[in-house]
Every structure is written in C-alpha cells, then in structure tokens.
Amino acid sequence: MKKIFLATILFFPLITLAQSGQFFLKAQVSDLNKPLKAYLYYDSEGKSVLDSANSSNGTFEFSGHLSGISKASITLDHTGGGRSKLGDKRDILAFYLENGNTNVTASDSIKHGIISGSRINQQNSIYKAFLSANKQTFESLVTRSIAATPEQRKDSTFRKNLSELYKKTAEERELLQIQFIKIHPDFYISYLALVEVAGPIIDVEKILPLFNSLSVDIRRSEAGLAFEKTIDMAKITSIGAMAPLFTQNDVNDKPVSLSSFRGKYVLVDFWASWCGPCRAENPNVVKAYQRYKGENFTVLGVSLDRAGKKDEWLAAIKADGLEWTQVSDLKFWKNEAAKLYGIRAIPQNFLIGPDGKIVGKNLDGKELSQKLQEIFGH
C-alpha cells in the first residue's frame, strides 16, 4: 500500500560521530583550463549552506564548519549562467562531507569525480558495490517501464508482472542491506541503511536487534539516540500494548475521547483529505465498517488536515462516505494524536480491542478484512 511520508531528518540525517570541527575540500578537474564556478551544497547545524568558488585551472577549494557528517554535492557551472539555470543535465557529484581533508579528482566532469581522504565516502563506495547488481536490476526495470508501449501499459498482466518484479527487487535490496549492516556494524553507512530498512513504520522485532548490533559509537551518537527514541515510540504502539489515549474535536467542534470507545473494537484510522493513498484506501475501510458496524466494531478517523482547511476535510468525509466519528486538531503532521502514536506516514491504523489494547496495526484492505473475520468469525 502506498503511503505519504513525513520528511524528517531521520531519512538522511546529520550524524554526530565527533565534535564540531572544520572541513577542507579540494576538487581538481584536470582537463578544464577555463574560468569556471563550482557550488558546494551541504547542511551544517540544521541549516542548508550554499558556498561557491571560482577557478581558472579547474581547482576549487572549500572550507567550513560541520557538527558531524552531511550529505553534500558539488556542481560545476560550465556555462557561466549560474547554478539556478543549469537544468536537469547539470554536472554534479553527490557525496558525504565530513570534518578533515577530502579530495575530489576528475578529468573533464565533476560527476565522474573520485573521492579520497574520506572514511565515510570509502564506506559508501563499499556499500554501493555491495548493492550494485541489485541496482542494475532495478534500473533495467525502470528502463523496461519507460519503454513500454501504450498497449503494454493498458495490459493488466504486464503491469502486474512488472509490479511483482519491482517488489521482488526491493525485497532483495532489503536483504542485502541487512547483510551489509551485520558485516559492517561500525560503518556510518550501515546506520543510514538501517534507517532506510526501518522506513517510517518501524517493525520493532526486526529493527531493534539490528540497531543493537551497531557499534557503541554510532548508537550513542546524536542521530543514533534520536533513532533509538523512534524505536521506543514504536514499542509504545506495538501489538499487545495499551493504546495511548487522546481527545480531539469532531466535525462539530465537540471533544471526543478514545476512552469513550472502551468495550468495542475500534479502528483508529490516521488519514487526511490531501493524502491520495488515504483516499484510495478509504473504500476498504468503508467496506469493513459496513460489514461489522453492528457487531461491536467501529472506526475513529483522525485527520492530519491543515489549519484553515476544515472545509476540505469535511468535503472528503462526504465524498468518501465516511460515516464514522471523525476528529482532528487541524495541525497537519503536528497533530497531537499522531505525535502520540509516532505517525510518520499515512494512511496508518491501529485496531484496538474492547480492553483498550492494540490487537492489530497497519492493516490494509485485505489484512483488515482477514483480521475482522478472525475476530467476528465471518
């Protein structure tokens, strides 16, 4: 099921493995003997930084302060028109920037640059080589998808086969990533791989052992500690745990408490009117509600709609035929109930039993139907 994610620093974070310091970056593009300008883009202390340097012989030098490690990029302006006018075919090299000395050497194009003097980028080279065959498979699927004829794109069998191949390739990538993490527990890149494997909806049983296998330096780093808190939040909403209680206003601005549903099976459904995947999943929730609403089952919708967008929320409720109770504080991703449940992607749901304990979570249409059949016997 597709989901919309909250963009957070956890997906490609700045990780503090050492104290704040200074970086020195030297890029040498040997076959360029004309005036050029290079742009360096990176993050420092939570802020985006764009630096530039001019050169007449292809040598560019940058320096600055970092509080850890940042994803970065160097872009060469071969035309003199400025970075904003370079378009999609810009000459760019993505890498990791860390304190100390880093060198980039290339011939006529920075995008083919070779990085040296950087431990993190050496790790990343090992990581990319480890995943290279899987990456080639994925790229071949992308090429096949782009090259598909109009008739093939209309063919359900063709689409299904391609979708299954994408899924298989993604599953193989995850297995490789887990293997890499176990082989290199002291690599910063292993931490990033783990964050990708975890995704926005964390499976604690799978992710916690992998996190604990990382080196102490990484686990005790600023980003490692933040990720540990995210895992702890996932524990709070694990199956068997008591569902965190909350109260929010319904569509008539009257407070509704989750505790008022005690004694029933209630599906707490996090969604939003602006969320395409949520709207696509709503018919499945409607179907479940209509089938079991007379059997001690109901739904409580929690919307992550924005302030000032109540009309859009109400219109979506009507359009999608959502007959159950709906609540929201109209705080977008800062919805208090969503924060309480650690929501970083929607749609997402939690099935709560009559005793207030979580008995299921992240149930899409088929899974929800199967779970309710298991509970009610039909």
UniProtKB/TrEMBL annotation:
The keyword Transmembrane does not apply. It is found in: Cell envelope. Residues 1-18 form the signal peptide. It comes from the Bacteria. Transmembrane segments: none annotated. GO terms for biological process: cytochrome complex assembly. Keywords: Cytochrome c-type biogenesis, Disulfide bond, Redox-active center, Signal. GO terms for cellular component: cell envelope. It holds the Pfam family DUF4369. Residues 237-378 form the Thioredoxin domain. The keyword Acyltransferase does not apply. One of its GO terms (molecular function) is antioxidant activity. This is Peroxiredoxin. The lineage of its organism: Bacteria, Pseudomonadati, Bacteroidota, Sphingobacteriia, Sphingobacteriales.
